[in-house]
Structures are given as structure tokens and as C-alpha cells.
Specification:
By secondary structure, the protein is mostly helical. The protein is about 70% helix and about 0% strand.
């Protein structure tokens, strides 16, 4: 299916809806339950294992490179030791069980099995037909996994592929912009759309001192002002980063076509909105403080 010209941000808007539902997994109590059952209990170990398992029993360097904004020392405390607790294939099976439980809890069994869910899964999978493995390690690893049969699991799988495809491209853009992992997080938080600093410290392993040092470097570049807000130059850089990420991620949405993208966006927003209303995320996750 092809190729009516899309609005410039149509792919980004579509991705955002799908990604919002995908991200519920990382805050789900069901994930902790399933991972504990296979011997992985530390929240950081759970996160690294669940997202990296598709790549196999990789080491801390690979995970740090692929995830980009985590501190290496934090990753190395849990990887590769986590694979001694559970093999990657066992992690993937536990993740699938957690996805099933999470989506059924947040959306309800009827929505999970609905015609709309099946339609969304079909559209999202069609979009993934135009994704590229080149220089996209997390996408490529997940693209080798089988597509689940149940509609809600197939939808989540496709959302994962589209998330990681865009994410891998985004990291290349961040590198080109000269932002290291922590600087990328600091500037994203400064937009008001990124994680609050306390969540960065807890989940990414950075300290307040390291955050402050990154802020200082960004001020020297003219990207942040004395109050830690984005300058005009900083705002422009973040806009350029998102626009270039859109360009690198345009193929799946062009393949799906304008009508398909619009419908998938509508469905994705509805599912994500229902999950949000059901309390899928912590109230203080996003913000500058």
C-alpha cells in the first residue's frame, strides 16, 4: 500500500499514540510479577532484560549503546548477570505474559479482542513492512521475533517495532547533534515533555552532580539559559532533532498511506487514552521538576 503525501508530522503523531500504549508495560505491576517468577526482581534488571532480550544474552556495552541515555555503570551492575537468572527466551515469554495481563487490565477483555484492535494490529503490521534493519539494532532484533496470533499482542508487537525503528533513528540524530545520552535527556526534560529529573536519576543511573554538569555544558553551547530553560537556539535544535527523526522514520507511514495513518492514529490514541485513564503511568512522570 502506498504513497499519498503525508502531513509533515503525521508519522510522529501516529507513533506517539502507539508508543504511549507500548510504554505502559514498563510501569505495569504485571511485568514485575512475571519477571519475579523467573528470578528477576530488581526494577533496573527487569527493564534491561525485557527491552534487550530480543538481542540475546548481550553485555553491558551493547545495552548501553542501544539504550543511549543510561549510565554504563548502572547497566553493568545488572548486565550480563541478569542472563544467569533467566535466559533471553524466558524473558521474552514472561514479557508476553505481562503484555497480555497489562492490556487486558487497562483496556478490558472486550477491547483486547475487538474488531478495532484487530484493525489496528493489521494497520500497524502493514506499516512495519517498510521498516529497515540497517543501523537499527533494537528494531532489527525485535523484527526477528514471530508475530503473535492474538490481536492485542500483535498490536503491541507492531507498536514495539515502530517504536524501536523510530528510536534507533532518533539516537543517530542525537549523536549528529552532539548530544550525549544525559544531555539528550536534559534537553528533552527542558521541553516539558520528558521525564522529570527524579525519574531520570532513579531509572537511568545519573546523579544530581552529573545532571548539573550536563546543564553547564549545554549553557556553554547556548542551548540552556541561566534558569535551565531552553534558549531560542535550544528550542530550534530540539525541533531540528524531531524533524530529522521524522525524516528517518517516514518510510513505514508513507507505506501505510495517509488514510491508513489517520485511522491508525485514531485507534492508537483511543487505546492510549483508555490506558492513561486507567492509571497506567505515575502522575509525576513527566515534567521539569
Amino acid at each position: 500500500m502506498t504513497t499519498a503525501t503525508l502531513e509533515p508530522r503525521a508519522g510522529r503523531r501516529c507513533h506517539n499514540g502507539l508508543n504511549s500504549l507500548h510504554a505502559t508495560l514498563y510501569f505495569s505491576p504485571d511485568l514485575g510479577t512475571e519477571m519475579a517468577a523467573i528470578g528477576i526482581t530488581h526494577p533496573r534488571a527487569v527493564n534491561f532484560a525485557v527491552r534487550a532480550a530480543a538481542m540475546g544474552p548481550v553485555g553491558a556495552g551493547t545495552v548501553t549503546a542501544a539504550f543511549y541515555n543510561y549510565k554504563y555503570e548502572l547497566v553493568a551492575r545488572h548486565v550480563p548477570a541478569v542472563w544467569s537468572a533467566a535466559a533471553p527466551q524466558d524473558v521474552l515469554a514472561a514479557r508476553a505474559r505481562a503484555v497480555d495481563a497489562t492490556l487486558r487490565r487497562l483496556l478490558g477483555d472486550e477491547v483486547a479482542a475487538s474488531a478495532e484492535m484487530a484493525e489496528a494490529a493489521g494497520l500497524a503490521l502493514r506499516a512495519t513492512e517498510a521498516c529497515s534493519r540497517s543501523a537499527r539494532p533494537l528494531y532489527a532484533a525485535h523484527a526477528d521475533l514471530p508475530v503473535p496470533g492474538e490481536p492485542h499482542l500483535a498490536y503491541f508487537h507492531a507498536a514495539t517495532l515502530l517504536r524501536e525503528h523510530r528510536g534507533d533513528g532518533h539516537l543517530a540524530v542525537l549523536m549528529s547533534a552532539g548530544l550525549d545520552g544525559l544531555e539528550a535527556v536534559v534537553t528533552h526534560t527542558a521541553t516539558g515533555k520528558g521525564m522529570a529529573p527524579k525519574w531520570v536519576f532513579g531509572s537511568r543511573g545519573w546523579s544530581q552532580e552529573e545532571w548539573d554538569a550536563a546543564v553547564g555544558r549545554l549553557r556553554e553551547r547556548g542551548l540552556l539559559d541561566a534558569a535551565g530553560e531552553l534558549t531560542e537556539q535550544g528550542i530550534a535544535l530540539r525541533a531540528e532533532i524531531e524533524a530529522e527523526t521524522d525524516r528517518l522514520d517516514r518510510a513505514p507511514y508513507e507505506h501505510l498511506g495517509a488514510e491508513g495513518v489517520a485511522r491508525l492514529t485514531e485507534l492508537g490514541r483511543a487505546f492510549a487514552g483508555a490506558a492513561l485513564a486507567a492509571g497506567a503511568f505515575p502522575a509525576d512522570l513527566i515534567g521539569k521538576r
